[in-house]
Specification:
Blueprint lengths: L2 E4 L2 E4 L6 H4 L9 H19 L4 H18 L8 H11 L8 H19 L5 H9 L30 H19 L15
Antiparallel strand pairs: 1-2
């Protein structure tokens, strides 16, 4: 990694999404917690853009993080695994129940965001420790997130055929074609079919 000279000190080159690139030193915010959270979101958006992700993907992920923060009633440096569990339970209640695959996608977004926050290259643990005396942690783990267990998780009536089911279908269709071809009935159009 390259280094940059900064006021006589040597600093690591800034990576897209690092705290230093989105928070200005010396600025006092009226709502410091909200400003740091918005800086985290801005930094993560910048980091995702550097990975060539689309604007639609990024904005959907940021909207989910705002929704989760509102549900948890706390900011990322105070999130707990219990917040993930409460959020998930809320997604499975009522008429607007979400599919397991959708919830898994939400969990993946939360996990990626927490991975970004706890990565020392982005300096968010230091910022949170210095400002709030707390540091963000990974709140998504194998005990509170949806595991990918099945090849297909949608409506069972709309699942794709398995290999064996496709083979059985084509065998049946081949047999039907042969039966019609050899039936001697009008309407068979294969020139190579012979009448019995």
């Amino acid at each position: 990694m390259s280094t940059l000279s900064w006021q006589g000190k040597v600093a690591l080159a800034e990576v897209p999404g690092s705290a230093r690139l989105v928070l200005v030193d010396g600025v006092v915010h009226l709502d410091e917690a909200a400003a740091v959270f918005e800086g985290m979101l801005s930094g993560w958006a910048r980091q995702q853009k550097s990975r060539m992700l689309g604007d639609t993907t990024i904005s959907a992920r940021l909207a989910l993080l705002r929704r989760f923060t509102e549900c948890a009633e706390s900011y990322p440096w105070a999130w707990t695994p219990g917040d993930v569990e409460d959020f998930t339970v809320g997604l499975k209640i009522g008429a607007q129940r979400l599919a397991p695959s959708t919830i898994r996608g939400y969990h993946l977004t939360l996990r990626m965001f927490c991975d970004y926050l706890i990565d020392s290259r982005y300096e968010w643990p230091t910022v949170c420790r210095d400002r709030f005396d707390q540091v963000p942690t990974q709140v998504c783990h194998e005990w509170n997130t949806v595991a990918h267990l099945n090849d297909y998780e949608g409506n069972p009536a709309r699942r794709p055929f398995s290999y064996d089911e496709l083979q059985a279908l084509f065998d049946y269709l081949d047999e039907r074609v042969d039966r019609v071809a050899h039936s001697g009935r009008k309407g068979h159009w294969w020139p190579c079919a012979t009448r019995r």
